[in-house]
Structures are given as C-alpha cells and as structure tokens.
Amino acid sequence: MKTQKIEIYDTTLRDGTQGMGISFTMASKVRVAEALNEMGVHYIEGGWPGSNPKDIEFFKVIKDIPLSNARIAAFGSTRRANVKVAHEDNVIKLIEVETPVVTIFGKSWTLHVTDVLKVDYKENLKMIYDTVKFLKGEKREVFYDAEHFFDGFKEDPEYALETLQAAHEAGADRLVLCDTNGGTMPDAMLQVIKKVRERFRRGLGVHIHNDSGVAVANSCLAVTAGAMHVQGTINGYGERAGNADLCSIIPNLKIKMGIDCITDAQLALLVQTSRFIDELANLKPNSKLPYVGSSAFAHKGGMHVNAVQKNPRTFEHMDPSLIGAKREILVSELSGKSNILIKASEYGISLHKDEINKVLKKLKEYEHKGYEFEAAEGSFELLIRKTSGSYKKFFDLEGFRVIIEKREDGRMYSEATIKVNVNGQTEHTAAEGDGPVNALDNALRKALEKFYPQLADMSLADFKVRVLDAKAGTAAKVRVLIESSDRKRIWGTVGVSENIIEASWEALVDSIEYKLIKEKE
Questions:
Q1: Residue 189: which of 161, 219, 167 has the closest Cα?
Q2: Cα gap 494→481, rounded to integer Å
Q3: CB of 512 within 8 A of CB of 448?
Q4: Residue 438 or 305, more confident
Q5: Which of 20, 103, 98, 97 is nearest to 53 (CA)?
Q6: Residue 135 gets which letter from DSSP?
Q7: Cβ atoms of residues 51 and 97 within 8 Å
Q8: DSSP-assigned beta bridge partners for residue 482
Q9: Which of 10, 40, 306, 367 could be bridged to 262 by S-S, CB 3.0 to 4.6 A?
C-alpha cells in the first residue's frame, strides 16, 4: 500500500439529504455518524446549524458520543456582503455548536458573484477572507469549499485562483475544489487541478457532483493529480443526480489504487454500512451500485457461473469478501448446470446428473410461462425439491373464498375463508385483512398454526405485482412476488396467473412451505 495520506470526508448528513426523498431524524443522524465513524471515515459533516433546529440538536448530542476515528464538521457560508463577520448570525452559530471542524463555502465563479451575491469582485474576496480568518481565530480546523470552482476557472481562471488565495491567506486548512454543477469532464478536471497545484501545493480537496456520471472517476483522478481530501456521500445521495459515491471511491482508492485510506477491517464494513444507511433513509437499496449493490457480484449466465466456479477472477474484478459482499448465483432460463448445482448445494440438496437436467428443463418451462426466480429463492428451492423428489407436502387445500366489501362508511373490507387438510384433519377458518391478499395470508396461517405453531412469528413483508403482457389488458398474466420474514431471515416467493388472487395464493403457499422446510433443518 502507498503511504499517501487521503482524507475521506462524508457529507451524507448535509449534502446527501438534499437528494429527493431523503430525510433523517435527529436520532437517525446520530446512528449514521456512528456507523461512518466505525467504517473509518475521517470527517463527518453533520449539517448546517444556521438552517434548522434539527441540525443544532444533532451537534449538541454528538458532542457527548465518543468517536474513535471521525471529526465532526459543521457547514455554513461566508459572511454576507457588507456585514461584519462577528455580527453574522450564521457564522456565530458555527462557533456555538462547538465542532472541531468548520466547513464554509464561498463563490469562485464571477457569474455567481454578480448575479447571485450581487457584489463586486473585491467584496467577495473580503467575504471569504474575513470568514476564514474569524473561524481560525476561534481555534477551529477550517475547510474552504470553493463552490462552482471548475465553472469559475473555465470562465475566469485568475479570479477563481484569487478566491482560493483569499482563503489560503486567511489560514484555511483545506482548499476544496467543488464541481457543483457536476458538468466537468475528467480530462478538463485534471488540467485545472494541475494548474491549481502550481500555486497551492498542499491541502487540496475535491467535492464532485454526478450530473455527468463521472463523479467517482473525477474524484479518483483528482487524487492522482495531488488532492489529499475527498468529499462524497454514502450511496451517492445528493441533489439532482447525486454526489460522488464514497461506496465506490473508498474501495477504488484502497483496492485499485493501493492507497491505505481506511483499514482492511473498516473496508469490510462497506456493504453493511451502505445498506444500514439506506434503511435509516427508508430507501430501497440500489441493486446496480458498483461494489455494494446486490447485483455487483451476481452471476446469471451458465457459462459465467461455470467459469466463476473454476476461478472467480474470470468474471469478478475483486474478492467481494474484502468489502463485506458475497457472490450471488442467480437462476433463470439463461442458467446452466453449474447454476443448479451451486444453488442446490447452498440448500443442502444433493442432485444426480439426471435430476440436474430435470430441474433445468423445469426452470426453463416455468420462466417461459412468466415466472422469475432471481428474487424468489424460496420458490426455486421448492422447485428443486419437487423435481428431485425431496419435497414433502405439508397440507392440502380443499378450497378458499375471498370477499371484498365496501360498506356505508366508505371503507373497504376484505375477508378470506379457507379450508385445508393436514394429515387427514380438516381445518375451516376465516380472517380479515387490509386487502384480499393480506386476508388470505391471515386466514391460511390461522388455519395452519394449530398444526405448525412456528408460523406465528412469520409475516408478509412486501407484495409486488407485475403485468406480463400489457396488450392483453385485464386478461393479462400477472406475476406476484411476495417477500416474507421471520426473526431469522427474509425470503421471496413467486406466483403467475391471469388471476391475481390465484397468483398470490401460489406465492403465499410457497412462502409458508419454505418456512416450514427451514424450521425442520
């Protein structure tokens, strides 16, 4: 590993929350900070105390929480025009929250100076200088974010450099070049940073947005050009197309570029941290993200799976365990015998050659009908067991009925009545639910819990419907994917039919049978 020191600065809790649909409670902000600290992030930008009470409360609480790796930063702006910095309320609040680090932004682009701030160029330079100088006088580590720096440099390079000079002379510890609009291409960025380095040799950082899809590449290239401070967010959260994604930047720096920015043990927490923060933000994880997405090390094509089984380097650019990820073998009509063998082995099922062929044939038949097993491993395990003869039936359906009723109060009511037979004993029961599928689920489990009490801790976690042939209108086939959970695991099951209730029933039965199989193991 190289000895080059690179600082990782996380702004998930401030810039990341400007992304659409992202918000953290104060308590969640604390939990995010603790997770980032554990993963080895060097700086955590907690928010803008001048903008809202929640951020002020966060800074108050986080002071009493010991952080072994990270330093907390408060974010704000330079003083306003023609206002003494000591009288600027937003700057005073940066001091009052008592963070060891303060990050402020100022204008580097003449367009913003004239059209947004509406001040002359010299006053803007004074605003930058005065604010940094004041904060340094308060014994803070001060980072200066040069907003819109690359756009500003393109239009007036000398003035953009003068804004950096003002912050530098005032004592800024870091000069952070921001591609705020996210429109700078890698070659242009390299040229600008090299020119900046001619005047400022130390303490350079970058803050890149992803509007052109090159934020991670630009951030890594900036390091090769001399930047030692990289800002970003977990999972690339942020306004518009988001910020540079630290979940890609960190492993790129450490694994690809050989820069020991965090420890091996901290790197192994990457996937866990990514999904934990998605959960706190109430977001579904993006399966397509590099490194941390669930598809990042997933293999579907039979030839690929066969090759990976022989040597993972054939279709994997790195060992997924280094970041806490794991290899996934998917099953579909593209699968080969290697996929089937690996999945059966995971389930503890031993298959003979002819059984493998039968499973593969059955899989392709089902997928031709519209089934999809990538997210329905519960149904796929049952398919293997049924085809190979290792399946045991837990109950027989004698019949069910679902009633949907709209009453005088305007509310919709759903009730399911069901009759099942377990080992020659008939159970007939009914249950209500929030909808027909929920009612059917409640009724089925109510009927079976007498025989299988372990079903009591199982619940329906998610329900998705996909129309398979929109041209057929209301007669189209639908695919229902159900996610179920208990205290140990989450699993998916699938059903397909022209009737949504029948498709749902099929997926529900699979979910229960899968639970009972796992309880026996």
A1: 219
A2: 5
A3: yes
A4: 438
A5: 97
A6: H
A7: no
A8: 463, 493
A9: 40
DSSP-assigned beta bridge partners for residue 259: 2
User: Where exactly does CATH 3.20.20.70 map onto the chain?
Assistant: 7-280
Residue where the block lists tokens 């910095």: 85
Q: What are the tens digits of pLDDT across the range 193-231?
A: 999 999 998 899 999 999 999 999 999 999 999 999 999
Task: For residue 314, give both structure tokens.
Answer: 């054939």
Q: Which residue has the tokens 């993963």?
A: 39
The tokens for 114 are: 């004239």
| Spatial distance between the Cα atoms of 251 and 231, rounded to a whole number of angstroms | 14
Q: Where in the chain is the domain with CATH 3.30.160.270?
A: 396-520
Kindly report, residue by residue over 279-337, the tens digit of the pLDDT: 888 787 888 899 998 778 777 666 776 777 778 788 778 888 898 887 766 555 555 66
**pTM (predicted TM-score):** 0.71
Q: Give the count of beta carbons closer than 10 Å to the beta carbon of residue 44.
A: 27
Q: Considering only CA atoms, which of 265, 256, 273, 326 is closest in space to residue 297?
A: 326
**Distance between CA atoms of 66 and 23, rounded to whole angstroms?**
24
- Give how far Cα 3 sits from Cα of 253, 263, 438, Å: 12, 13, 58
CA contacts within 13 A on the Cβ side of 175: 27
3-state secondary structure of 106: strand
Closest CA to 138 of 166, 108, 101: 101
Q: What are phi and psi of 423, to 5 degrees?
A: 50, 45
What architecture (CATH level 2) is domain 7-280? Alpha-Beta Barrel (3.20)
pLDDT higher at 521 or 442: 442
Distance CA(149)–CA(82), nearest Å, equals: 23
Residues with Cβ within 8 Å of 201's Cβ and at least 6 positions away in sequence, in order, are: 226
Look up residue 32 and give its two tokens: 């995010």
CA–CA dist 104, 115 (Å, integer): 20
- CA separation, residue 131 to residues 48, 91, 257, 271 (Å): 16, 8, 36, 39
| DSSP of 385-443 | HHHHT------EEEEEEEEEEE-TTS-EEEEEEEEEEETTEEEEEEEEESSHHHHHHHH
Query: Shortest CA distance to 420 belongs to which of 376, 387, 452, 389?
Result: 452
Contact criterion met (CB below 8 Å) for 434 and 469: no
* Phi, psi (degrees; rounded to nearest 5) at 380: -70, -40
Tokens 């419907």 label which residue?
Answer: 465
In words, the CATH class of domain 396-520 is: alpha beta
Strands (E), 221-340: 229-232, 298-299, 328-329
Tokens of 483: 């996610």
Phi, psi of 184, rounded to the nearest 5 degrees:
-85, 130
Number of Cβ within a 10 Å radius of residue 313: 11
